[in-house]
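pasting input
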Amino acid sequence: MEDRPYCWRMAEKSSDVVIIGAGLIGLATAWRLAADGIQVTVCDPTPGSQTSSVAAGMLAPVTEVEYGEDALLALNLASVAAWPSFAEELEALTGQSAGLNRTGTLSVAYDVDDAAALHRLADYQRRLGLDVEELSGREARKREPLLAAGVSGGVWVPGDHSVDNRQAVATLLRATELVGVNLIRQRVARVLTSGTAAVGVQLEDGQSLMADQIVAAAGPWSSQLEGIPQELRVPVRPLKGEILRLRVPEAYRPALHHTVRATARGFTVYLVPRPGGELVVGATTSELGYDTRVLAGGVFALLRDARTVLPITDELELVEAVAGLRPATPDNAPILGDSGLDGLLWATGHYRNGVLLTPITAQLIAETIRTGALPELAQPFLAARFGPAQHADARRADPGDEMPKVAT
Ligand code: GLY
C-alpha cells in the first residue's frame, strides 16, 4: 500500500461520494444518493456513451435465464420488478420518458433442434416457478404475424420487457442535474489510498477529489483502475457485442409488437422494437478485448439470423451498426459492495444485464452507503467470492491494453 503523497495529504473533501463512471449504473446510483441529500460527484469523460448507449435494453430475467444461476435470477427478478417505479420517479422528476416498454417477450425457435432446446428451457423456467407459456409455431405467429412461416414454436414471457436505453441515459443525466450531482467530464487516473482505505480519486488533469466513499462503476474498465492493490482488483473483462439499429418503414409498422428472442439453426438473435419505428437487432459475443470495431462477419451473422425468423428484415433500413463492451465476470454475475478497501464499493460486472440491473444496483449501493451494511440480496455478489488467483488475473484480462480514455 502506498503512502499518501504530500500533494493531496491536506486536500479537502470535494463531496461525500465520488462515483467512477457515468453509465446507467453510475448515474442511477448518483441520482439515488443525491436525492437523499448526499453530495455526489461523478467522473466520466463521455457520460452514458459507452456500453449503456450501445445495449439493446432487454429486461429479460426469464427469457435469458441460465441453468444454475439462481442467486442472479433473484437479483434480476427484483430489478425487473423495480423498473416501473424507478421509471415513474424519474419521469415525475424530469418530465421526460425513461424509455420503459412493457410489451412482454416472445422466445421463438426455428428448426426442430431449436424447438427442442427452447422446450427444455421452458421446463426449467417452469420448475423455477417462472411465468412462461409454451406456444406452437402458429400461436407464436398469432402474436407476431410477420414471423417466418418456418418458425416452429415459441414461449411467451409476459414479464420480460425492454427499455430504450438511450432514452434512459438522457433522462438519468437530466435527473442527476436536477438533484445537484456534480458531473466532471474527465477520466479517473487513479484511486487514492491511505493505508487500507480509499480516500479519493485523481483525475487525468492531476486534480484530486477527496471523498468519504468511492463507488467504482467503470463497467468493462473496472479491472484497469490504477491505485487499487493487485490482490483487490476485480476479474472483469470486456466482452464485445455488435448491435444493429434498423428503421421500419411506416407501411410495415409495427414490424414487431413484442421483443423477440430467437434461436435460428442454433444461433441466437434478439429483435427489440421501439415505439418510434426502430428495431434493435443484437448481439454478437466475442472475446476480443477492448476492440469496438464493427466487423463484417458480425453484421452478416445478425442479419442472417434476423431475416431467418423475420423475413421483412430485408426491407428495413440499416441505420447503425455499433459495438460495445459488456463487463463480464467469471460467473456472469455482477460485483457489488465491499472491495477490501474501506471507502471503496464496487458496482460493476453487470455482464449482459446492465440495463436490467440498473434500478436494483442503485438501490442496493445507496442503501449500503446510507446504512453501512450491504443488503442481503447483494451478499452473493461480493468481490470476495472470487479467489486470489482470479483477482490477480484481472489485470491480465486484456494484456497490452491500456486504460482507455473513456471510463464506462
Ligand atoms: N442482454 C443482451 C446481451 O448482452 O446481448
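fyi Residues 223 and 234 are 5 Å apart (CA to CA).
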